[in-house]
Amino acid sequence: MPFELSVEKLIGILEKEKLSLGEYTLRSEMEESEKSREEVLSEMAQVLATMREAASQGRERPVKSVSGLTGGDAYRYQQAIDSQRTIMGQVMSDSVSMALSCSEVNASMGRIVACPTAGSCGIVPGALLAAAKKFHKSDGEILMALFTASGVGIIIGSKATLSGAEGGCQAECGSATAMAAAAICEMLGGTPSQAFDAAAVALKNVMGLVCDPVAGLVEIPCIKRNASGAVNAILCADLALAGVPSYIPFEDTVEAMYKVGQSMCGALKETAQGGLAVTPAGIRLRNRVLGVKPQTK
Fold first, then answer.
1. DSSP letter string over 192-227?
2. Nearest one of 163, 270, 162, 266 to 212, comparing CA atoms
3. SS3 of 71, please?
4. Coil/strand/helix, residue 269
5. Is 170 in contact with 209 (CB distance < 8 Å)?
6. What is the CATH number of domain 7-290?
């Protein structure tokens, strides 16, 4: 049976069969790939291992991007955490440092998990691993949460887009944030309905976010947007678990996001022709990367 893309029908199936979204997604992958449960779990365990490695590298030592534009921020922030200089609590701070690390590893051409894209690779691991650390979740529980995230990603990718070039950063970092929020919610005992509420609110919070990478590189402002997305995901999971609903259903939110993306001009969809990319500072940074000398009058 193909993955049910109607959220209303899917929730009905999950409630009737007493399944989590993560378990449903796992079974769907087993059927689609014709692999055993053990094989599918083993593959996801490799994904988790890669996420953990990427989430730790930048916190342990400064990681510089290939362009030289960015690097070392995860290490700086981790130093602030270790010396108790951060304003946020431990979970939020951990999520930020991990998200920054993954994004810096990506910019350095290191190994990451595109979850769902390389440009948004820090959000799911940053948020999920930080929450799992606080609540002492096992690897098995984290793996199931990753299947929950995958289920949300399947629906967004099928009904809208995960691409910044097509829908702006709302489609890229926004989708990752929705995936992470749902994953945390189910991992901490939330129902499928609550998980979709968490995903909806997370996506609504970044509705209209443009994709405007300086010099066309996935660094500025992408890396810090990953940190922001991780915090957003944890917040939205917290809201849903507290019983705070999303008054706009997840499926409606996804449709709205897609329409907003379609209405964006091309300059705001990964072309580096609008937004922060064409500010005076953005142009100076682009010229530095490209080796363009400033014009003299």
1. HHHHHHHHHHHHHTTTT--B--GGG-S-TTHHHHHH
2. 270
3. strand
4. strand
5. yes
6. 1.10.4100
Long-range own/partner contacts, residues 8-16 (CB < 8 A, 24 or more apart): 8/249, 8/251, 10/192, 11/192, 11/193, 11/196, 14/192, 15/192
Q: pLDDT tens digits for 91-125?
A: 999 999 999 999 999 999 999 999 999 999 999 99
Say whether 55 sits in a helix, a strand or coil. helix
Distance CA 196, CA 149 (A): 10
Give the Cα-Cα-Cα angle 233, 143, 20 (nearest 5 degrees). 75
The residues spanned by each domain of the chain are 7-290
Which amino acid is it at 101?
S
Are 251 and 204 within 8 A, CB to CB?
no
| 144-187 per-position pLDDT tens digit | 999 999 999 999 999 999 999 999 999 999 999 999 999 999 99
Q: What type of residue is 184? A: I
d(CA 101, CA 93): 12
Phi, psi of 89 (to 5 degrees): -75, 175
Report, in this order, helix, strand and coil percent for the chain, each rounded to 5: 70, 0, 30
Q: Which helix (H) or strand (E) holds 84?
A: none
Q: Output the six-digit token pair for 101.
A: 């690390």
Q: Is the dihedral of CA 161, 163, 168, 170 positive or negative?
A: positive
Interior/surface letters 73-87, b for 16+ CB within 10 angstroms, e for the rest: bbbebbeebeeeebe
Chain-centroid distance, C-alpha 288: 29
CA trace torsion 25, 27, 28, 34 (10° rounding): 140
